[in-house]
Design brief:
mainly beta, 5-stranded mixed beta barrel
Length: 66
């Protein structure tokens, strides 16, 4: 699945992704593939998988879109 970073806080370690199909999706730093190799900035295009959690959908295995 693809989306665009809506917001992300390096300090807090989480943010949100805008998607066409699922609306806004939560992303935690633990869901970033190869965490630390790229910083997430507003507007960045990313690819990821969705995981259902008790609080809703969460992005996992997130990496920059090519």
């Amino acid at each position: 699945m693809d989306g665009q970073i809506k917001s992300y806080s390096e300090k807090k370690g989480y943010g949100f992704i805008d998607t066409e199909e699922h609306g806004v999706v939560f992303v935690h730093k633990s869901g970033i593939k190869d965490f630390g190799h790229f910083g997430l900035q507003k507007g960045d295009l990313v690819s990821f998988e969705l995981k259902d959690t008790a609080k809703g959908k969460q992005a996992i295995n997130l990496y920059p879109a090519k």
